[in-house]
Amino acid sequence: MIEEDRAREDIAFIRRAIEEGGAYATACSPDMLVWGVAIAVGYIGAYAFIRGWSPVPPNGVWAVCIGLAWLYSLRRQFARLFGGSPPPRGPMAQALGMLWLGCGIFLTIMGFAAAWTGAIREGWFDAVVAGVMGIAFFASARLTNLSWLRWVALAWWLGELAIFSLRHHVERLPLSAALMLLLLAGPGLILLQRGARIRR
After folding, report:
1. pTM, whole model, 2 decimals?
2. What angle do CA 171, 176, 127 make, to 5 degrees?
3. pLDDT (tens digit per residue) in 8-33
4. Alpha-carbon span 195 to 200, nearest angstrom
5. FRET partner for 56 with CA separation of 20 to 30 A, picked from 1, 16, 181, 193?
């Protein structure tokens, strides 16, 4: 009898954790949308400069795009610093938050290091971005019980191969921008609409 009660409690805990993961993904959908658009603008800005269509250097465009996206994503932490108390998050939401934060920190540091050293011109970094996004979506699919995110992860990994094959060509930049809009901003928009339907 005690084992049955414990099993029911474990199942209830797992169910709550999965629901919490899905709710967290929906709550963070605006972040996905903002990041997807911001990074796509950075890629298009770099492409326009290289093609001679824009006088604005890519490093300035990237600094603005990444800086604004980070400010948006860290808005809750800033609110907490100035006296707001965020609602408590369960273990699944914390795991998802740390997954995406870790990926964001890694890509930001690596991006600035590649730009600083000039290695960004070699073209491999954009493929790394796509690969990391695939990992993040693949893990998120499991943590949120949103199985369609696995297909997004697969699309990122296919995009990684395409970008790597174009690493010495400027065409990788608009391709990377398209991937950001379709595979980061797109899922963000779908999850945002899902959240709006749930709230009705």
Report:
1. 0.85
2. 95
3. 554 444 455 455 555 666 677 889 99
4. 9
5. 181
